């Protein structure tokens, strides 16, 4: 290497050399590439390093030895598939959108409510649907691949998705055909390659920037039989809005950290660590940079990092007014296009801008952005234009210089990712107030953004834009140790909630007594590879996944002879009571919902005891409605969005609620129930006493609640209705272990545990001995149960909690 490896880097090399799968959490500036090079040099085996983009891969080639091939995912896919489409890539590179519309058969406007979509707009949306499909792990183009469409309500977007879906499916068929005529893009052959479930020609695979992995690459990486090493920093995951996923947290491998940063010194590391804690990371950086590295104020830094474009533009204007040559990272073209579109709309002309094409005036844009709570990106555009005016934005862009001529670079934090400067000032946008003027809580996502910002500095960090939060983070607060950011005691959370916090009582116990969940997760992943692709709705743009998960859980419970569970009953009673309930409708509506819920419970009970059998379709409708009653109880609020009960008025009946259940729900649950026939058949044949649904354990009251899904004949089953089963990781394995250990008195005689994947029909089980052994247990099951009981009661004192059941799926 030329530089002596640190102890952390040496430990990572040794674990790698032993052939162990590894998740290497590398903090900002801690030499992750040097560590990967060190690993590659420690073996003669064939390796493959996969980088996010070509420049990084090219730079890595000069550092790795001859045994490690460096590539991007697209390069791998091109060699395997893409080169067969080389002519189409070139021929369609500059195809006009009008021609694409003609090829797709769009010749006239499409009316959606009061809006009209041009033929070219329809073509662009279809090709974007294909693009999103290519980023996903799905096997078919679906309605949910239609992105956000500003200007349409939910019903309009659903209608549009269904209209465009058939064209999008045909477009994918055309793209995959050697004789296809539609534009062919690089992401197309990447997806085609991924669908072949490729095996990479390497003995080990090194995946860089794993915290922001494209889902399609994630699936390829996790499916490899070769030794796998993923490296990155989960605290720098800031691209969730682009569908990027952090695969490190659930990765079934040994977890090690690189914490010695060579980018900055102790003062900046101290700031970074405060934001790491706020981001719920356990990593603690130490600063080892040579030379000056301090905090302070600076008027003309090398870079100013801002929360959003409006704040960045304000900074640019200030520097221009002061005569300081300034550049905007990424250039001003996006701002220029926004300003030009705004000018068109203000003049009453339509625009082709991808965010604004449905509007006929700027007033319509302003009104829609204000009324639609989900239109955050559009609201940012409106605020930018209204604050400065389109002509000033255009004038400002024209006065900016290129980065190589600038004295200062102004950047959003997102565009600063992967970069660093000597002197950095944190700009505006990280406001201490929310939209209602209340003090803003520091949530993990915001903390990750701030952590990325402060770690871009090498020599001098000016935290001006974060001073309000810095003061808040420095204040000693008991909540930082044993409460959630919202102030809820960790010990009061249910089992699944506690496992989201590394400092909770359950998480601490698991890390101490069952220290190696990655071994069990790895065994689980081996099973998943052999299962079929999950079934899922195709025609619904926004499936209510949580409600579908509850519905299939109820249907499986009923098929085993069990009831819906106490949570549904509690939800019905809560609505029928006079107890305060945030967001609840008026008393007359609560009353009719209580009546409908009571009738629902009676109909399900009549079905179970045989006095009033219910058809399969009606049973699914009842179960789906029941899930919303449970959600009210579980969350302690009456949600107004994506809640079928929110449509109720004083005339609502059980029939009107069940009639409102969407058709896609019936189709999806029918598919899942068909898949369950074979694995659940032997379970249904067990005596009734051996079929327990929704079991509660002796230890459930020692925390905020813990209800499992099923225990059948000694087999503890956790049902997962996920469409991405390979994302089941440490937290889900520990959840299963928690249920097992909370049965203090062995009331259920559990001798096997497992997951049931309802969208694949896969039942994956282990004996308790195998399960605990793979988790690294050093004590017997009775000893572990006693230790957990003592641990929870010692930390929490006598339990006196409101029970909330755990989540399903």
Number of helices, counting only DSSP H or I runs of 4 residues or more: 32
Q: Indicate the low-confidence ranges by residue numbers.
A: 798-803
Question: What's the count of strands?
Answer: 21
What is the average of the pLDDT values?
A: 91
Q: Report how far the terminal alpha carbons are from each other.
A: 47 Å
Proportion of strand residues: 5-15%
Radius of gyration: 28 Å
Across the major sheet, the strand order is 3-2-6-7-1-8
Largest sheet: 6 strands, parallel
Name the shape in a single word: globular
Structural class: alpha/beta
Helix percentage:
40-55%
In short:
45% of the residues lie in helices and 11% in strands. The protein is α/β, with parallel strands linked by helices and 809 residues long.
Which characteristics define this entry?
globular; 809 residues; alpha/beta; six-stranded parallel sheet; 32 helices; Rossmann fold; 21 strands
Description:
Helices cover 45% and strands 11% of the residues. The protein has 809 residues and is of the alpha/beta class. Among the domains are: 7-81 and 196-258, P-loop containing nucleotide triphosphate hydrolases (Rossmann fold, 3-Layer(aba) Sandwich); 83-191, no CATH class; 499-538 and 680-809, no CATH class; 541-661, no CATH class. A six-stranded parallel sheet has the order 3-2-6-7-1-8. Strands 11-16-15-12-14-13 form a six-stranded parallel sheet, sandwiched between helices. Helix 11 (266-278) packs antiparallel against helix 18. The radius of gyration is 28 Å and the shape is globular. The model is unreliable at 798-803 (pLDDT under 50).
């Amino acid at each position: 290497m030329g530089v002596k490896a640190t102890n952390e880097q040496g430990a990572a090399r040794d674990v790698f050399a032993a052939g162990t799968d590894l998740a290497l959490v590398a903090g900002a500036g801690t030499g992750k590439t040097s560590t990967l090079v060190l690993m590659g040099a420690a073996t003669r085996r064939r390796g493959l390093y996969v980088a996010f983009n070509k420049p990084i891969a090219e730079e890595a080639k000069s550092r790795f030895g001859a045994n490690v091939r460096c590539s991007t995912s697209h390069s791998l896919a091109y060699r395997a598939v893409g080169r067969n489409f080389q002519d189409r890539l070139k021929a369609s590179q500059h195809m006009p959108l009008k021609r694409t519309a003609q090829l797709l058969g769009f010749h006239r406007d499409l009316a959606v409510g009061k809006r009209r979509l041009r033929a070219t707009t329809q073509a662009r949306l279809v090709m974007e649907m294909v693009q999103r499909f290519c980023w996903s792990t799905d096997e078919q183009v679906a309605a949910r691949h239609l992105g956000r469409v500003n200007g349409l309500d939910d019903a309009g977007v659903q209608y549009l998705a269904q209209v465009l879906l058939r064209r999008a499916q045909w477009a994918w068929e055309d793209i995959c055909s050697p004789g296809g005529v539609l534009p062919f893009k690089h992401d197309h052959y990447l997806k085609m390659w991924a669908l072949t479930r490729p095996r990479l020609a390497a003995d080990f695979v090194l995946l860089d920037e794993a915290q922001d992995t494209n889902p399609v690459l994630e699936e390829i990486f996790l499916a490899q039989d070769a030794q796998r090493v993923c490296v990155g920093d989960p605290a720098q995951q800031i691209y969730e809005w682009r569908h990027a996923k952090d695969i490190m947290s659930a990765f079934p491998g040994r977890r090690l950290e690189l914490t010695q940063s060579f980018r900055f010194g102790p003062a900046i590391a101290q700031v970074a660590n405060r934001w790491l804690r706020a981001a719920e990371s356990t990593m603690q950086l130490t600063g080892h940079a040579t030379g000056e590295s301090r905090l302070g104020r600076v008027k003309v830094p090398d870079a100013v990092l801002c929360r959003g474009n409006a704040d960045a533009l304000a900074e640019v204007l200030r520097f221009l007014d002061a005569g300081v040559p300034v550049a905007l990272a990424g250039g001003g073209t996006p701002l220029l296009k926004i300003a030009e579109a705004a000018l068109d709309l203000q003049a009453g002309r339509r625009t082709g801008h991808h965010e604004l094409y449905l509007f006929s005036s700027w007033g319509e844009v302003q009104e829609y952005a204000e009324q639609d709570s989900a239109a955050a990106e559009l609201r940012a555009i409106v605020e930018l234009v209204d604050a400065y005016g389109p002509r000033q934005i255009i004038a400002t862009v024209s006065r900016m210089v290129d980065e190589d001529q600038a004295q200062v670079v102004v950047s959003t934090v997102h565009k600063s990712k992967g970069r660093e400067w000597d002197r950095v000032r944190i700009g505006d946008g990280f406001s201490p107030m929310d939209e209602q003027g209340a003090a803003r809580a520091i949530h993990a996502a915001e903390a990750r953004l701030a952590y990325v910002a402060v770690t871009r500095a090498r020599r001098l960090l000016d935290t001006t834009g974060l001073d309000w939060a810095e003061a808040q983070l420095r204040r000693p607060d008991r909540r930082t140790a044993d409460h959630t950011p919202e102030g809820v005691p960790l010990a009061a959370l249910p089992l699944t909630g506690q496992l989201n916090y590394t400092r909770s009582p359950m998480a601490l116990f698991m890390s101490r007594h069952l220290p190696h969940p990655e071994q069990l997760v790895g065994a689980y992943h081996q099973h998943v590879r052999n299962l079929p692709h999950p079934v899922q709705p195709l025609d619904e743009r926004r499936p209510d996944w949580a409600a579908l998960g509850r519905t299939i859980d109820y249907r499986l419970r009923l098929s085993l002879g069990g009831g819906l569970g106490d949570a549904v009953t509690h939800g019905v009673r809560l609505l029928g009571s006079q107890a305060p309930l945030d967001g609840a409708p008026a008393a007359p509506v609560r009353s009719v919902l209580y009546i409908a819920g009571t009738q629902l419970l009676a109909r399900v009970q009549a079905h179970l005891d045989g006095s009033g059998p219910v058809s399969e379709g009606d049973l699914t409708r009842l179960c789906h409605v029941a899930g919303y009653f449970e959600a009210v109880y579980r969350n302690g609020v009456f949600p107004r969005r994506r809640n079928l009960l929110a449509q109720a008025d004083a005339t609502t009946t059980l029939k009107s609620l069940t009639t409102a259940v969407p058709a896609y729900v019936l189709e999806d649950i029918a598919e899942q129930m068909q898949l369950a026939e074979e694995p659940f058949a032997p379970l249904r044949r067990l005596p009734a006493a051996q079929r327990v649904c929704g079991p509660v354990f002796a230890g459930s009251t020692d925390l905020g609640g813990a209800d499992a899904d099923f225990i059948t004949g000694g087999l503890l089953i956790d049902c997962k209705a996920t469409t991405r089963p390979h994302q089941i990781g440490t937290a889900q394995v520990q959840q299963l272990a928690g249920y097992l250990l909370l049965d203090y008195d062995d009331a259920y005689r559990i001798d096997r545990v497992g997951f049931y994947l309802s969208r694949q029909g896969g039942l994956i089980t282990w004996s308790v001995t195998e399960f605990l052994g793979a988790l690294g247990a050093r004590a017997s099951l009775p000893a572990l149960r006693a230790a957990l009981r003592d641990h929870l009661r010692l930390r929490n004192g006598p339990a006196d909690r409101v029970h909330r059941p755990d989540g399903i799926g």
